[in-house]
């Protein structure tokens, strides 16, 4: 796996991780972490997170300082074996993870909890850092008559800078525009819900794309609704256009939208 800036190539071995780099592309660092399965780099390449399974089905996450090779902190997680359990802010100053009804934000270089306590967020499902600012977007599932919520949280102040309530929500996906100027939250919504023996079944599905204008006062939100199945969403690599693939499998369509400051998304 390559590091984000292309400085290192990480190879995985039974005893740990080897980083390769430099002008002659040599072995520059060995990190001991038995049975490592995945690695993640922090955005500025200061830290590496190694993931390894434990015998009880949990996984051990260890953070290493790439400059010194020192182990900075480790965690035990019961999440499925995969990377991206710990997620970093764009400047490596913070990282965060989800627990049971909690969002835990840690700061570097101390690797302690920000303000020495986790943030209680009942029903939190997912979160994502802005690629430009120290802002977290997270969403909370609905609970009976309490609506689902999308929240923008400023770090380190923990200030809610925007919240959006949503009803009849089955799922959400968070998509930041690369420059952090816009945030899209894809919302899967339902007309009816049926609960049987612990299973939840939705019908009458439709979809909203909630567009947050991050650089405008009070962060206004526009909504694009599509009543067909959604197959993919993506922002363009540079710019503020996005594309949606939608429709029945035998008749897919691709729609392009342009987002500008002070305007609702325009279908091109």
TrEMBL record:
Signal peptide positions on this chain: none
InterPro entries, sorted: EIF3B (IPR011400), TIF_beta_prop-like (IPR013979), WD40/YVTN_repeat-like_dom_sf (IPR015943)
Every Translation initiation factor beta propellor-like domain range: 165-260
SUPFAM superfamilies associated with the record: DPP6 N-terminal domain-like
Gene3D superfamilies to which the protein is assigned, alphabetical: YVTN repeat-like/Quinoprotein amine dehydrogenase (2.130.10.10)
MF terms in GO: RNA binding; translation initiation factor activity; translation initiation factor binding
Keyword Membrane attached: no
Keyword Cytoplasm carried by entry: yes
Keyword annotations: Cytoplasm, Initiation factor, Protein biosynthesis, Repeat, RNA-binding, WD repeat
GO cellular component: eukaryotic translation initiation factor 3 complex
Top-level taxon in the UniProt lineage: Eukaryota
Protein name per the record: Eukaryotic translation initiation factor 3 subunit B
Organism: Schizaphis graminum
């Amino acid at each position: 796996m390559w590091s984000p800036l292309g400085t290192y190539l990480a190879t995985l071995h039974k005893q740990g991780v080897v980083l390769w780099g430099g002008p002659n592309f040599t072995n520059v660092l060995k990190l001991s972490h038995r049975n490592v399965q995945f690695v993640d780099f922090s955005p500025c390449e200061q830290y590496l997170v190694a993931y390894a399974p434990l015998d009880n089905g949990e996984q051990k996450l260890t953070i290493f300082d790439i400059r010194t090779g020192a182990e900075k902190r480790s965690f035990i997680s019961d999440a499925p074996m995969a990377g991206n359990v710990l997620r970093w802010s764009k400047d490596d100053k913070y990282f965060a993870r989800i627990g049971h009804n909690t969002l835990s934000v840690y700061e570097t270089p101390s690797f302690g909890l920000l303000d020495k306590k986790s943030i209680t967020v009942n029903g939190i499902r997912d979160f994502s850092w802005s690629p430009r600012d120290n802002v977290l977007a997270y969403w909370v599932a609905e609970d009976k008559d309490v609506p689902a919520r999308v929240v923008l949280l400023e770090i380190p102040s923990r200030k809610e800078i925007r919240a959006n309530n949503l009803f009849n929500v089955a799922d959400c996906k968070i998509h930041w525009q690369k420059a952090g100027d816009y945030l899209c939250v894809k919302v899967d919504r339902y007309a009816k819900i049926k609960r049987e023996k612990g299973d939840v079944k939705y019908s009458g599905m439709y979809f909203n794309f909630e567009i947050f204008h991050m650089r405008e006062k009070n962060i206004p939100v526009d909504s694009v609704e599509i009543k067909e199945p959604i197959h993919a969403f993506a922002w363009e690599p540079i710019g503020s256009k996005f594309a949606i693939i939608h429709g029945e499998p035998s008749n897919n369509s691709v729609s392009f939208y342009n987002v500008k400051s002070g305007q609702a998304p325009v279908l091109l």
